[in-house]
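User: These chains co-purify. Model them together.
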Amino acid sequence: MIDKIYFNTARLSALFVLVIVAWIFVVLFNHSLEAMHTFGLDFITKDEWAPNLDKFGAYAAILGSIISTFLAMLLAVPIAIGVAIFLSEIAHDKIKGFFGVSVELLAAIPSVIYGMWGLFFFVPIIRDIFGGLGIGLLAAGIVLAIMILPFMAAVTRDAMNTTPDILKESAYALGGTQWDVIKDIIIPYAKAGIIGSLILALGRAIGETMAVTFVMGNVHHVPKSILDPTTSIPVTLANEFSEADSSLYFSSLFGLALTLLIMSFVVIAVAKFYFLRKARKTS
Amino acid sequence: MTAVQKRVFINKVALTLSTLSALIALGFLFWILGVLVMKGISALNWNIFIFDGAPPGNPESGLKHALVGQAILIGMATAIGVPLGILAGTYLSEYGKNSKLAHTIRDISDIMMSAPSIVIGAFVYAIVVMPMGHFSAWAGAIALGIIMIPVILRTTDDMLQLVPGELREAAFALGAPKYKVILSVVYRGAKAGILTGVLLGIARVGGETAPLLFTSFNDNFFTTDLNEAMPSLTVTIFNYATSPYEDWQQLGWAAAFILSMFILGLNILGRLILLATKKRK
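Assistant: Joint model of the two components:
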């Protein structure tokens, strides 16, 4: 009797996870219907976002999300791969332990703190070097890159560590240098895992809110250069959700949230189910 | 240069570049930590724990309201997320095992763990704030609780699977029903692991700002009313840091320092517990 109760509570809790995810999609979809009916495809192709005129086009926000994430990846990927190589192949065991743990701990620091640091310390530097406001896509891309770096490096290192020692030793026995082993053995072997890890970090970066809200500017314009302030989906949501006053405004914001959820869901699913699963099969 | 010399040279260049990138990464990260510690400690004083928020310029202003609010929100989120997460993890490890349903739940939960937290905030806004008509601590706690579930589920599932099957069989052989086996054998065996999962789950939601922005919102006053907007450290950091007032910015750094120490402390504690149990075995 108690056995049955326990089993059913546990099963309900587990099913609850599926229910919640489905529920999130349904709720966001329902609430964005009004915006979809009013604007149709214009919602994602027009960049005029004028709450006072009840006109909402999310093009600038979507573009801002994509560009800032792309910039962040451009900066973070080479460094993360370098760090991962350093951690898995170069560093001494003692350094490895210390460095590895500090990278993982840094991944735990709340993103709001990265954003605050960016606003007070990095934005002035960009302003001094390039002129302008300092706030904008470039600042957002850099802060985002720094924020995802620890996570990206840690998972990439884990992927590289799956390479069996015996393969590496055989290559060394043939006279390979460390770099030969890295580029001809480890990278080909762990390729799927590395790509999966990088894409997973990308999935996190798209949805990251607080690190970029400080330094993006929240201006609904398609930027002319990466120094211009613009906006992204999470930045718009963070700034405008508690201020929205018409039902169409709300509906448009829910539309943005749904767009963001779909984007990150697809990216994360590709990373997990395609690359990381493939990686697990080969290792 | 002979072919060998060339390879040795390329090797050196590549390894130097990789070490250099490690140093760059570490440099940035210690820059951030350094700023946080310097700014945070210089802004810390007793007033912060004694006084509530006040208009800018008032020397008697502190963070008591936000500290208490944060504790309430995290406490409520834990009360929602931990039981659901542990029960769901138990189902996966003890009942579902390798069934299709269990795998689907694991996959979806994994995706949810990386899904944008601000979207969870929007969802909770729609299902809690809109019907209630105003922001509330309930909404904030529900949002954080939802974010916590996948973290706890994952660690519970992993940790329970580490408990050797022989232990379960021995308990079954003594005639114990399954729920008894789970409660007094499996949970006991995985105690440290589950505790670590809970600590990591709390650390994960403790730093969340985005889902609170429009659920528990924020308040500059002390409140314990769960039906009202509730201040939190994270949203207070955001509001104070983006304000033009020098003393609010100072309080923002103090809050950032306290929050980071709390979260790093939880992470380190979780690791130590795992290490200690590994050693004992």
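Chain B has two domains: 3-43, 50-280.
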